[in-house]
Design brief:
The chain is α/β, with parallel strands linked by helices. The protein contains ten helices and 24 strands. This is Phosphoenolpyruvate carboxykinase.
């Protein structure tokens, strides 16, 4: 049955490509690309247009509208395993390890740009001759050009996934909705951990506006994909934000910080512009609840740059007797004053994306308890008993009795290997 539908779809595909308006009457297709999962009928005209526009540019073979279900997640994890993008970590429950292209391991600030009509609306303008360090600006024409140079046909042969997601609990009045298009199943599975995503979000959205997020892993200009299990285009990686139209565009990287667009791109950067216009704040801050021995609870928020300890402080285990600490958020805080003038905050995320090295039962016991179930590890080392390893676990995992494979897939021996077992920014 399945084969028949696909064959029929292939024929319709050809016909559809020849029509003046490629969507006429073809509810299983968008511009000739077969919808292999999800129902076009449930999409609002705005969501459908967003998909259609990008299908026309990116030319995917298939479209998968994500419902966020457990079944879908399992199918995608299985697909990723078949492609060699992830491997199961048999020591734990539903845990996986991804190894990226070694050139795609972190966010790239220098390639992260904000698009506004005037430079002064995006970044402070330094004196002539001085290089600014606070963000990068791109003009609308520059953004259009950057996109044209990269996105044309970039999903040929691939599946375009459509991820409806909510930053903040779906029913919360503070939540904001985005739709992310991506050609990475790793991104879909990761977005399922980091956000609330799927069918329920589409139902909440109705025909309202949403933050438009477009992501493609890209292919190098010369067509040579060095690591087929992790396609990317490090040379041309670019992360663009257009606050005016609430658009995010990310090309060339599969690394979480660049590709999970709900996180830094939406919750922080676009979020801060939405917040400014609506009179609230989106900040790069952890939120921690502290209850003293008398039962009085207070919250603190703390702003540290990336890789400076937000996740670890947010997961603090108190050493002072009688105190209780509760993690609300480890990266981004959405804050506003309520009608009584009390500052309230939510964590718009739904999961954690912490740096692995340095994490152990002494430095962060809560993280250690959390990560042995339903976790996607990226660029950590693996052990022959199906576990993970990184710098900082020397006193907890006896590597002399195990074989260790480093984050690049090579044999690693403690005290002998000259490189680290895990990438310093492994997550
Ligand atoms: N020495 C030391 N390292 C820390 C401390 N807090 C965090 N780290 C390490 O710094 C790195 C980044 O930590 P993380 O909490 O993920 O930072 P985030 O990116 O700001 O959330 C990890 O390797 C941590 O183990 C600390 O208080 N002391
Ligand atoms: C998510 C990231 O930031 P942080 O280090 O603040 O967690 C990142 O840099 O990819």
């Amino acid at each position: 049955m399945c084969i028949l539908i696909c064959r029929y779809a292939g024929e319709v595909n050809k016909i559809a490509k020849g029509l003046a308006h490629p969507n006429v009457g073809l509810f299983t297709h968008i511009r000739g690309a077969c919808v292999v999962s999800g129902n076009l009928q449930t999409l609002s005209p705005k969501v459908r247009k967003f998909i259609e526009d990008n299908v026309a540019i990116c030319q995917p073979d298939e479209i998968h509208i994500c419902d966020g279900s457990e079944k879908e997640n399992k199918q995608l994890l299985c697909l990723l395993q078949k492609k060699g993008t992830i491997m199961p970590l048999t020591k734990y429950e539903n845990c996986w390890l991804a190894r990226t292209n070694p050139a795609d391991t972190a966010r790239v600030e220098s390639k992260t740009l904000i698009c506004t009509e005037h430079e002064r609306d995006a970044v402070p303008i330094p004196k002539p001759g001085i290089k600014g360090t606070l963000g990068h600006w791109i003009s609308p024409a520059g953004m259009d050009k950057a996109m044209q140079e990269r996105f044309g046909n970039c999903m040929k042969g691939s599946t375009m996934y459509v991820i409806p997601f909510s930053m903040g609990p779906i029913q919360s009045p503070l939540a904001k909705i985005g739709i992310q298009i991506t050609d990475s199943a790793y991104v879909v599975c990761s977005m399922r951990i980091m956000t609330r995503m799927g069918q329920a979000v589409l139902e909440k959205l109705g025909n309202n506006d949403f933050v438009k997020c477009l992501h493609a892993v890209g292919r190098p200009k010369n067509g040579k994909v060095e690591y087929p299990h992790w396609p990317c285009d490090p040379e041309r990686t670019i992360i663009l934000h257009k606050p005016l139209t609430q658009e995010i565009v990310s090309y060339g990287s599969g690394y979480g910080g660049n590709s999970l667009l709900g996180k830094k791109c939406f919750a922080l950067r676009i979020g801060s512009t939405i917040a400014r216009s609506e009179g609230w704040l989106a900040e790069h801050m952890l939120i921690l609840g502290i209850t003293n021995p008398q039962g009085k609870k207070r919250y603190i928020a703390g702003a540290f740059p990336s890789q400076c300890g937000k996740t670890n402080l947010a997961m603090l285990t108190p050493t002072i007797p009688g105190y209780k600490a509760e993690c609300v958020g480890d990266d981004i805080a959405w804050m506003r004053f309520d009608k009584n003038g009390v500052l309230r905050a939510i964590n718009p995320e739904n999961g954690f994306f912490g740096v692995a090295p340095g994490t152990n039962h002494t430095s962060n016991p809560i993280a250690m308890k959390t990560i042995h179930k339903n976790t996607i590890f990226t660029n950590v080392a693996s052990t022959s008993d199906g576990g993970v390893y990184w710098e900082g676990l020397e006193h907890e995992i006896d590597t002399s009795k195990l074989e260790v494979t480093d984050w690049k897939g090579n044999k690693w021996v403690r005290g002998e290997s000259k490189t680290t077992a895990a990438h310093p920014n492994s997550r």
